[in-house]
Amino acid sequence: MKQHHGRKRISRRVDDIEPQKIRVMFDLAAEYDGDLVHLELGEPDFDTPGHIVEAAHEAATAGATRYTPNAGLLELREAIAERLSEQTGQNVDPGSEVVVTNGGVEALHLAIHTVADPGEEVLIPTPAWPNPISQAKLAGAVPIEVSMPPEAGFEPDPDTIIDAIGQDTAAVSLTSPSNPTGRVFPPEAIERIVEAAAEHGAYVLADEVYRNLTYGETPARIRSVTDHDEWVLSVDSFSKTYAMTGWRVGWLSGPADVLGEVTKIHESTTSCVNAPAQHAAIAALTGSREPIEAMKDAFRSRRDFVVDRIGSIPHVSVAPPEGGFYAFLDVSALEGSSMEIAKRLLYDYQVVTAPGVAFGDGGEGHIRLSFANDRDRIATGLDRLESMIRTELGPA
Ligand SMILES: Cc1ncc(COP(=O)(O)O)c(C=O)c1O
Q1: 343-380, pLDDT tens digit by residue?
Q2: Which residue range or ranges hold the Aminotransferase class I/classII large domain (predicted)?
Q3: Residues of the chain with CATH 3.90.1150.10
Q4: Please, what is the angle between helix 375-393 and helix 290-311, to 10°?
Q5: Terminus-to-terminus CA distance in the chain, angstroms?
Q6: Total-model pTM
Q7: Cβ(237) to ligand 1 under 6 A?
Q8: How far is the CA of 357 from the centre of ligand 1 (A)?
């Protein structure tokens, strides 16, 4: 049989993609038989609020079971555009500047495929959620990790990012708040980075899926703190804010000339987003904010608990996350790589975490703990972590 790149008909592009390192821990945990505390989860532990589920049910019962327009239901795009216009003070056109996607993940995939040519670079400040790396590879582009300095909890460093922007840069991914570090990009840093990107004709991919889960003031939208918003592609999602990860609804918004092209890919890959789920998303945007605020309050109180509790454990530290539901814990005092540490935590202490290296080489020496779990389980997980630290390193 004819071999292709040494393998049986697997394209080079796909062959090049490595399995995510977070996945390794999921798989090991799935095989493990015991009372595990799950602190690796990247999704809210809450159920989708009832009025959102009800809206999908009603829509499906009333016959909303057919294809929708490729870019999404106009009513949903109008609700998204209205919100976005309020948040940015810009006039967002629902007809040409918003596309409804299968989660934030598809929005990023579409954006990268639309703006990056094979061989061009996609810059990714790390530690970062790894999907844009594989998405860039799938587009034939070259993902370039730009490591943020670990001091001060990986506070974004605009100079390092700007220095990495060059004539081959097609896009710069800015995730704010960040998964895993919880850092929010300050507006001055954003302004400088977008300006540098614009000078090089590169787009900024503004991933804001955790924007509503911030614990200080909600940060300004990235596109609203720059004079070059025509170079910003905004990505957001219903997944985290509304506890809707499994519904798969997100959106991409940006200039009409780019968004018009995006739908070409959407058409050949997914046609449109699940119709009842789009109705659920309309209810999420237009319905009661109460359940949303209650979830956010719960995340805030867990975050305070986690930060306090970690403060009482010797040899480890965490910069309090400004947003998202992760604590990126410095465990560099322990022996071994972050993967080895995560495996010891799993096998010897029954706590599942994500190793820092899953978020880029600069994430070594860290593990990510998610507080998308109930408070008692988080407390048990942190007790177990403390016993590992004290057993391996002794008292402070
Ligand atoms: C930073 C970041 N962006 C985007 C996503 C995509 O989520 P979804 O596709 O469910 O909207 C995630 C999910 O973990 C994320 O952490």
Answers
A1: 999 999 999 999 999 999 899 999 999 999 999 999 99
A2: 35-383
A3: 12-47+290-390
A4: 20
A5: 62
A6: 0.95
A7: yes
A8: 18
